[in-house]
Amino acid sequence: MASTELAERLLARDRAAVPDALNLIDDRRPARRDESFALLDRLQREVGDGGALRVGVTGAPGSGKSTLLDALVRALRRRERSVGIIAVDPSSPKSGGALLGDRVRLRSAAGDPGVFVRSMAARDRLGGLADATFAGVEVLCAVFDWVFVETVGVGQSESEVAGLVDTLAFVAQPAAGDLLQFMKAGIVELPHLFVVNKTDLGPAAERTAAELQAGLRLGEAPEDGWAPVVLRASARDGGGVDAVLEAMEAHRRHLEATGGLKERRRRGRIAFVREALVRRYGSYGIQRFGGREKLDERLGAAEGSSAFRLVRDVAREIETALAEACA
Ligand SMILES: Nc1nc2c(ncn2[C@@H]2O[C@H](COP(=O)(O)OP(=O)(O)OP(=O)(O)O)[C@@H](O)[C@H]2O)c(=O)[nH]1
Ligand SMILES: [Mg+2]
After folding, report:
1. Segment 197-236, tens digit of pLDDT
2. What are the DSSP calls for 243-287, one per residue?
3. Is 34 in the same domain as 55?
4. Ligand 1: residue whose CA is nearest its atom 21
5. Which residue range forms the structural domain that includes residue 304?
6. Which of 1, 147, 298, 301 is the most buried (most CB within 10 A)?
7. Residues 80-107: pLDDT tens digits?
């Protein structure tokens, strides 16, 4: 199917077009890449800076991210909201979705056309969160009311996923003892809400929540004016799940009221392009291009292009600069 037809169907919120669109963005053949860029440019322009709530759900392995997502999906379906989910698979370089059933176990999604789940590889050949993950979010956001991205881990994956979503939720295990590590790594600065999960297991959750709350108070006042929220939940029993949803909605309202939404997405796109280019050409390449400032200027001036096309276009410019440097 041509990208123009795919774009029409996605913009008409036709869910049946989603798998074809995801296949297209995963296709590396040059002609298909051009189609894919055209599709993503159009989605970016026409979906604009509103649309689906984009929420990242992160946390240590086994903390209950998927179980929480399952509970959130149920709550959203009761409210007649549609949901798209990208589960980032940390293990396989190319999972093709086969692991999906094991990792995500979304019972709530079975047979429901209002829920779409896709598992994607964490890393592409160049390292970093796979480009397809970023593109997949754009596609799902055209069609669904809410889009979630589940990622495991502490460290780089958090900051990458933070650039991709409006709201970042961190799922913490009771008494995991991770808190100090997060603080050292600066992780506590990124999430907008912390969910201490498994409260059904006893009082440890209460302690962890109090510890987190105290730790967050030590940090600097957030520059976007949003004070991170600490919530308690039992994803398994559904306890506290509505409050999690409400906190996510409250954060979105905050972003809209302060103008932060547009700015956050703009910065997220620029960070994505910059990281992709630095990964590919190193700081030497960026230097040859004219340095970070020139790069940011170039990226800031390219509003109509999707981040993906921009990576390709600026990559060509950097290669020209490198060739000149060698001549
Ligand atoms: N008691 C209890 N167990 C829970 C709760 N939430 C999740 N679990 C259990 O914790 C285990 C891990 O849950 P998952 O939802 O798969 O955790 P995850 O964070 O998605 O794990 P990965 O995707 O592997 O990183 C499973 O055995 C769940 O049944 C909860 O609220 N209470
Ligand atoms: Mg999971």
Report:
1. 999 998 888 888 888 888 887 777 777 889 999 999 999 9
2. HHHHHHHHHHHHHHHHTHHHHHHHHHHHHHHHHHHHHHHHHHHHH
3. no
4. 62
5. 263-326
6. 147
7. 999 999 998 766 544 444 444 444 556 6
